[in-house]
Amino acid sequence: MHLRDFHYDLPADLVAQRPLPDRGASRLLALDPTGEGCRDLLFSDLPRLLRPGDLLVFNNTRVMRARLFGRKGTGGRVEILIERVLDARAALAQVRASKSPKPGCSIDLDGGAQLIVGQREGDLYRLGLIEGTFADLMSEQGHIPLPPYIQRPDDASDEARYQTVYARHSGAVAAPTAGLHFDEAMLVRLREMGVGFAEVTLHVGAGTFQPVRVADIDRHEMHAEWIDVNEDVCRAVHSTRARGGRVVAVGTTSVRSLETAAADGELKPFRGDSRLFIRPGYRFRVVDAMITNFHLPESTLLMLVSAFSGYRLVMDAYCHAVDARYRFFSYGDAMFLIRNEEDAALNQASSR
């Protein structure tokens, strides 16, 4: 398929710039490929879509205060986005400046710390911290790295709202946004009705916002993201399958985590980087249903959900969401998707 196949027109005023006052107050567009099509619901209706014995799989990554500001020795302004902390005083980061920094140059941060620019590694720079640790630096001087389509600086409210209530392991530069809709009351409600919970970790990287730059999507090279799927998750999935329940991924990051861990056909513990690119033609091995937000036009995440529920159904649903004025992207509304078994059968047959 081609990149243009995943384009849709989105009015700028539908891009949510702030979260709703309550986490669970968003709308929920439910897609059923078996014939019901689209249903306009509220996120509070989610228990109606789940069954006792289903397993919800959450991504428990925590967003770092990864955005820093400073100046080069020449005086030029610099914006830094820490992508991955390597050790106490070394990190990989995106560096935005009027001119690309050279290895060996220094950056004086607005809060007083100093960084030394090392060698470039792809789109990232290796940065060294002169004194202290990157953990303390980000805690004291860092900003919440809101996505580029949110046209405002971060503020105090983002500290809590651009973070899931179950976030545990720091390492992400973007939130697993499907999880932002869950509050403690919803988690209690689902647990009481017999829905099981499991947690994976995928540290979302800044590459999630990078555009696909090739017309033929099969030529796209996916960015790497660090994943941890442990033995407990695998046991929970196998137990859910044995009792006839469904595996419901909360977010595309949970989908990629589970499918990476089952890449050789069997779900097994996995810890490391993944470059799994899911697009139409992919055969899903683990996930039966998913909750997700609305994704950017021509993005790899839109390709993933199109592979999951069927290209035409998903693209028609996006047109409906625009017409019905759903709120889009990170602070926007949600979707509930069921795997298209007919597409899965076709994909499996075509792979033989």
From TrEMBL:
* Subcellular location(s) per record: Cytoplasm
The pathway entry for this protein reads as: tRNA modification; tRNA-queuosine biosynthesis
Write down the SUPFAM superfamilies for this protein, in alphabetical order.
Answer: QueA-like
Superkingdom as given in the UniProt entry: Bacteria
Q: Which Pfam families match?
A: Queuosine_synth
For this protein, the Enzyme Commission number is 2.4.99.17
Kindly state which reaction or reactions the protein catalyses.
7-aminomethyl-7-carbaguanosine(34) in tRNA + S-adenosyl-L-methionine = epoxyqueuosine(34) in tRNA + adenine + L-methionine + 2 H(+)
- Extract one GO molecular function annotation from the record: S-adenosylmethionine:tRNA ribosyltransferase-isomerase activity
Question: Where does it sit, as one GO cellular component term?
Answer: cytoplasm
Instruction: Offer one example of a GO biological process linked to this entry.
Output: tRNA queuosine(34) biosynthetic process
UniProt keyword terms in alphabetical order: Cytoplasm, Isomerase, Queuosine biosynthesis, S-adenosyl-L-methionine, Transferase
Family affiliation: Belongs to the QueA family.
Q: Which PANTHER family match?
A: S-ADENOSYLMETHIONINE:TRNA RIBOSYLTRANSFERASE-ISOMERASE
What role does this protein play? Transfers and isomerizes the ribose moiety from AdoMet to the 7-aminomethyl group of 7-deazaguanine (preQ1-tRNA) to give epoxyqueuosine (oQ-tRNA).
What does the subunit comment say? Monomer.
Name of the molecule in the record: S-adenosylmethionine:tRNA ribosyltransferase-isomerase
The gene that this protein is the product of is queA
